[in-house]
Design brief:
The protein is of the alpha+beta class. Strands 8-9-10-11 form a four-stranded antiparallel sheet. A three-stranded parallel sheet has the order 5-6-7. A two-stranded antiparallel ribbon has the order 1-2. The longest helix has 22 residues. It is elongated, with a radius of gyration of 28 Å.
Amino acid sequence: PSSEQKSAVSVKVIPDRKATSTYLEAKINGSKTFISQSTMSIVRTIARCSDARNKSCIAGGHDLETIGEIETMLQFANSLKEKDAVKSLLTLDAHLEHRSVLCGRSQLTIADCVVWEAILKNTNLEGIRKGLDSAGKKLLMKAKKKETFGNLRRWWTYVNTANTFIQARKAYEATTRGGGGSQSNNAKGGKKNNKANKKEGKKQKGKDVGNFDIPLKGAEVGKVVTRFPPEPSGYMHIGHAKAVLLNDYFAKEWKGKCLLRFDDTNPEKEKQEFVDNIMKDLKTLGIKHEPPTTTSDHFDDILKYAKMFIEKDYAYVDDTDVDTMRQQRMDGIESTSRSLPRDEHLRRWAEMVKGSEYGQKCVLRAKISMTHKNKCMRDPAMYRCKVGKLHHKTGDKYKVYPTYDFACPIVDSVEGVTHALRTTEYKDRDEQYKWFISKL
């Protein structure tokens, strides 16, 4: 490849089913260049040639410190192939106490591959391996002590949810089920495995098993855009970390990009201090995002869309007091403001934008349905007045601020987000998100 292409080298491994021994024959443009016969040599060769941008290789995509860690772990993997490998597992568990992966910060490397394979293939570890596969169960060791291997199980679960490892394990298990023995023995073994699979299927039925094997509808390689939109009203917690790591994972898996956008729509709670600390935490997590944006960057456009909603009779301005409005939503009763003329709603909207005394009593609401089964769809709020609070970025320029539910679909569209990954807490509001998109 040319110097411009060196960061985009792709490797395709084609198995030769007729081969009688393990070897790697490398070809470039049809011409054979070298043959590698050692298993570790093959692993290193593939890793070095892999796309450096994925940081899944031993050289080119890592710093020297991580490369050193990988080499050490590759040597350590040999101890996991021995008959008595329990001590090595304890060492591995301790190593993973403050790590999600074996080497580096957050990306899986060939070290994870080799160690995973060693544990998977060591028949002497079968009992412990079954315990690792069964989250929540304790593992009975030879010394008759119970060990949870919590750190090791966490890593094992994470690795086994990656698509590459899922496929590799399926292939390995298919080989061990189908290889060797007479035809009758294979038939018996097949029946036995079918029973075991059915039994396992019954165990798994109804069980909430998390993994990364989530299909992204309409995803195209190189075109996927995800986003992480934290509100700068506090410090990051474990939920934020999970959200950003998932968005970052899928963006990288599809060779797309992950956007960072601060949802700064509530000046009463937000501070620049939180913005700065979130940025530091993302760096600690090893997240490489696009240059950060804010919802406030789009405030002028969102105001225009709000007025457009009123003009098209998709929204109205309600001056009902908070307690009455809340009760009406619960009971499915329409506000008297809902049926007022459009010009009256535009007049009230102007008062809200000015932040007048009357405007501060009003709320802009979406006109959806007050009898909808999903109460999140019962004319939700779109804009509220917030006067006297300085926004950490825009100061006192605006007197009205959009709700997250109204602003988010607009900014997602403007910034080109293709897949908005939302946690289950937003399940009831997903319908609302889609409604706003349909009206835009």
